[in-house]
Amino acid sequence: MTLKKFLYYLSFTILIVLFAILSTYKDDKSRLFAERGDVFLKNLTSEINNISKISISGRDLKMILIKNKNKFIDPSGYPFKEGVWESFITSLSLLRIEEKKTNKPERLKELNLISIEKFDKNDEINDPATKVVFYDSNNKIFKSILLGKIDSSVGGISGGQFARFEDKNQSYLLKGALRMPSGKSDWFQSLLFQTQKDDLVSIKLINEKTIFEIENKEKKLKLKNNPNLKIDAEKLSQTAEIVESFYFYDVRKDNTTKDTKKPKLIFNFKEGLTITIDLIEKKNDSEEAWIKIKANSSDKKTKKISSEINKKSSGFQFLANINTSEVLNWRLKNLIKN
Asked: Looking at the predicted structure, is the pLDDT value of residue 12 above 70?
């Protein structure tokens, strides 16, 4: 074979190889983008009336939405913020496929697409997915999806987000992103009440008997009936701060029928307003506690405030912050300066 023929055949072979590579690349690329623009959760909008329940779980969130007539509510019956569940459903229905991503199980954790049940608790680099499960009217799973990392490189107001169906390893980059509050309390109007520091008259902690009583005299908190003890002023303030702005972190139905013998805090205010906080129980594996709240008034001037508090709190138990939970379990020694 002459050199000229050899170069000719070599050139021809290279062209064939390049054409094959290009064809493979085009095929791969077309497969990646074949579903671009498709709705990720097909039939969600048309089937929403048949959805009876939605569960949401992640690292810091575990909650259930149940269908009640034409809206979704919390199982406790406590009302959501206006528009919060509608925004959640709408954001899911608008998710569209941008492109296919990995289907290799070992790489899914890099996209935060491992459910909380299967997530390695020792993994300090990645986060578990937000898992959303839709149940039909027969309480069977309609769809179960995992939503992972946000990708701001995708155009649009919300950017993009990685996702997959729980029973499939194929992942996708979606256009759009899940819109919902990050913590459970943010689904509600979680501020139950506010009070003015100067209106506080006294605080009493009762645990079968009176443990201590604090009084507000000349705008200064003092321990009543124990003048010789060295009291920690910060601890007195810590007790009073409980009712300055009371937010809850979770809510459930109140199933208690009678007054318990567990600790209670009684806050007395000017013009006859009294707010009582009863300890129900500590939350499992937490320093936070479940409590219930009741307000009373012996003066017309504070009747409205009392009624507004009871309208929000009656029939419910609330998960209080750690400060409230701690104070409910204090003894007199907790107020003494070391």
From this structure: no
| pTM for the predicted model, two decimal places | 0.83
Residues 126-167: pLDDT tens digits?
999 999 999 999 999 999 999 999 998 876 667 899 999 999
Looking at the structure of the chain, the number of domains it has is 2
Number of Cβ within a 10 Å radius of residue 27: 10
In one-letter notation, the amino acid at residue 184 is K
Residue 23: inside a domain: no
**Range 28-50 burial, b when 16+ CB lie within 10 A, else e:** eeeeeeeeeeeebbeebeeeeee
β-partners of residue 292 are 278
Same domain, 162 and 278: no
Please choose, from the candidates 235, 245, 191, 199, the residue with its C-alpha nearest in 3D space to the C-alpha of residue 219.
199
Q: Which domain holds residue 314?
A: 191-335
* Residues written for the chain: 338
Kindly tell me if the per-residue pLDDT of 105 is higher than 60.
Answer: yes
Residue 9: inside a domain, yes or no? no
Residue 121 CB: number of other CB atoms within 10 A? 7
- Comparing CA positions, the residue from 50, 45, 163 lying closest to residue 100 is 163
Residue type, 242: I
